[in-house]
Write a structure and sequence with these properties.
Rossmann fold, binds 6-O-phosphono-beta-D-fructofuranose, four-stranded parallel β-sheet, alpha/beta, single chain
Length: about 375
């Protein structure tokens, strides 16, 4: 029965936090089934990120805050779906947090509620997938109540420090490439430049990978300053050499204006709008587009399903081994234990300017801004 601990069994909770991405359901399934089948643990799925543990917990009905998994629970349909069937939130939503403004106040209000519910539900450990912010907050709370925490990185931005790749990134690259392949035909049919904005708040991993894979002419990322003149030069070169008058430009949302200037705070236009407008001024018909949530909400591809399963298995094994404050990430192409001190409160993992993908983009003749890389 929910909350009534079988004293012989360890009982863990699993949740998904932060923005959704493809592959989360595979994480939930593998953590739960592997923990139950291999170690004989009980597993509780917590709904809506930490929110499921902070308000008055509803145990039954369609809006119950928890799912008590059992070996009979079928994940078969969920793993084939996008999003997260446990739900996720970026923000903590509870009436008690009306006047909370700082992280310290948040912890102060959250901790007693977290403590109370972890105790009531007899939870001995927490495994969660999220970004570095989610992992930091959950690990902090778990340390306070003295239960172990293991994280699994997920983000389509692929910028979690400490891991080479995060769950969701590969599917998002696929989603962008599919969308860009469609946009290509409109660009060609109308003989336009189409400037497509992809996600990547602070980093250009998604733009660079999707741009190379979709054979974009120009790729702009926050890590590399560009000039409007550089863009124009590239467009004119394509016109002269290939006699082509349609162009594909991919830009990460975190890019600023030219020469590394930030986008004005209250700008009512996107970076893609800014570049399209600049091209229009030079008599190159241009439009902007923004791929938005179709990058996040789609189905997980094969790679993300494999990655999610491998990291979930490692996360459970780490917890079984008595580890805490660690993340199951990827290092040198293999699942590896990464201490959370190398992940949380660290600088976002930027696109490495000497990486193969950046060098390849340059060697393909794509304009990616003003950059010098080692040979
Ligand atoms: O998941 C990361 C991200 O995709 C960022 O690139 C983007 O800025 C953000 O999510 C937007 O998400 P939301 O609208 O859910 O806050």
């Amino acid at each position: 029965m929910l909350g009534k601990k079988n004293l012989k069994k360890k009982r863990i909770a699993v949740l998904t936090g932060g923005g959704d991405c493809p592959g989360l359901n595979m994480v939930i399934k593998t953590v739960s089934q592997y923990a139950m089948n291999k170690y004989g643990w009980e597993v509780v799925g917590v709904k809506n990120a930490l929110n499921g543990l902070l308000n008055e917990i509803k145990f039954d009905g369609p809006d119950a805050d928890l799912i008590e998994f059992s070996p009979a629970f079928s994940f078969a349909e969920y793993v084939r779906q996008g999003g997260t069937f446990l739900g996720s939130f970026r923000k903590i939503k509870t009436k008690r947090f009306k006047d909370v403004n700082t992280d310290e106040q948040l912890v102060e209000v959250m901790l007693p509620l977290f403590k109370k519910h972890i105790k009531e539900l007899n939870i001995d450990g927490l495994i969660a997938t999220g970004g570095d912010g989610t992992m930091f907050m959950l690990n902090f709370l778990c340390e306070k109540v003295k239960i172990p925490f293991v994280g699994i990185p997920k983000t389509i931005d692929n910028d979690t420090p400490g891991t080479e790749i995060s769950v969701g990134f590969s599917s998002a690259v696929d989603a962008c490439v599919n969308a860009l392949d469609s946009i290509f035909w409109t660009a060609k049919g109308h003989r336009r430049a189409i400037v497509t904005q992809v996600m990547g708040r602070n980093t250009g991993h998604l733009a660079m990978h999707a741009g190379v894979a979709s054979c974009a002419d120009i790729i702009l990322v926050p890590e590399i300053p560009y000039t409007l003149n550089g863009i124009l030069k590239k467009v004119k070169a394509i016109k002269n050499i290939e006699k082509r008058d349609y162009f594909m430009i991919v830009v990460a949302e975190g890019c600023g204006l030219e020469k590394g200037q930030p986008l004005p705070k209250n700008a009512t236009y996107t970076v893609a709008d800014y570049i399209a407008k600049a091209l229009d001024k030079e008599h190159i018909e241009a439009r902007s587009d923004n791929l938005g949530y179709l990058q996040r909400g789609g189905l997980p591809n094969g790679y993300d399903r494999m990655l999610a399963s491998e990291l979930a298995v490692l996360a459970v094994d780490l917890m079984a081994d008595g580890q805490s404050a660690v993340m199951a990430g990827m290092k040198d192409g293999k699942p590896a234990k990464i201490p959370l001190k190398n992940v949380c409160k660290k600088e976002t993992r930027k696109l490495d300017l000497n990486s193969a993908i950046v060098k390849t983009a340059l060697k393909m003749g794509i304009y990616i801004g003003d950059i010098k890389v080692k040979k």
